Each structure stands twice: as structure tokens, then as C-alpha cells.
Amino acid sequence: MKRKASAVWRGDLKGGKGNISTDSGVLKDTQYSFSTRFENGVGTNPEELIAAAHAGCFAMAFSSELGKVGLKPESISATATVTLEMLPTGPTVTESHLDVTAIVPGADKNKVLEIANTAKAGCPISRLLNAKITMDVKVEG
């Protein structure tokens, strides 16, 4: 399976701007720029898109892992916060932190936490990132 997205950048780094699109059409000419990446401009940025991908991937992986042991989550809410730091080698994504709330009726909390860690390690986006991955999990149910 292959998925595609494209970007077009016009101009220099600080004054230029670009657009990101996905083949699915979910993103179509979505604006990004220096200010949306390093300041607080309107639009998206690569790190935000990575965070969205990580949160979505983890939630699906967690649901899958719970299903393998016969647990059916009512809901899994995941938020990923990606950290971009200025290192001597240049701007680098150094961490992705997952904040997770799982509602799993009738489940043992410690077992759900163990499964969450398995999902964190096995999620394809977790495996893609060359960054520290941390997680806080709240289990309800």
C-alpha cells in the first residue's frame, strides 16, 4: 500500500509560502509557511501533520491490540504533541508525546496500560519517527 501527498513552495524561507495536498483530497492546497511552522501563523505545518498521523495511527493500533485480547473499547482519544527543537545540526523533531484516554468497559486498568505500551511500540508511525516517544494514559470504564 502506498499513500501520496504533495507540497509546492514558492519564494524564500521566511517570505515564501506553500500548499500541501493529499491524493484523498482531505488536504487540498492547504497553506503552510515559515510563520505557521515557527511562529503562530494561520495554516498548518509538517509537525502538526505528523502529530495528527501519530495520534490517529496510535488510536487504531491500540484498538487493534485491545481486540486481540477480547476487549472492545468504547472510545480511545489520543492527542500527539510533536516537539521541534533547534539542535546544532538544525531543526529536529525530538519527541512525540501521546496523551490518551481510553474507555474500556470491564477491563483491568493495568492490563489496558500494558496493551497501550504495546500499541505505542507497534504503531507504524511510532516506528517511523526517529524521536523519543512518551505517553500518559487515563483508563476509564
Number of extended strands: 6
Helix content estimate:
25-40%
Please give the domain count.
2
Largest sheet: 3 strands, antiparallel
CATH topology of the largest domain: GMP Synthetase, Chain A, domain 3
Distance between the termini: 35 Å
Mean pLDDT: 95
Integer-rounded radius of gyration? 17 Å
Number of helices: 4
Q: Strands across the major sheet, in which order?
A: 1-2-3
- H/E series: EEEHHEEHHE
Quickly give the structural class: alpha+beta
Name the CATH class of the largest domain: Alpha Beta
- Uncertain residue ranges: none
**CATH-level-4 superfamily name of the largest domain:** K homology (KH) domain
Strand coverage percent: 35-45%
Shape call: elongated
- Give me the CATH architecture of the largest domain, please: 2-Layer Sandwich
What does this structure look like?
- This protein has 141 residues and is an alpha+beta fold.
- The protein has two domains: 5-38, no CATH class; 46-140, K homology (KH) domain (GMP Synthetase, Chain A, domain 3, 2-Layer Sandwich).
- Helices cover 33% and strands 37% of the residues.
- It is built from four helices and six strands; from the N terminus they run βββααββααβ.
- The strands form two sheets. A three-stranded antiparallel beta sheet has the order 1-2-3.
- A hairpin with a 6-residue loop joins β1 (5-10) and β2.
- α2 (46-68) crosses α3 (109-122).
- The N and C termini lie far apart (35 Å).
- The mean pLDDT is 95.
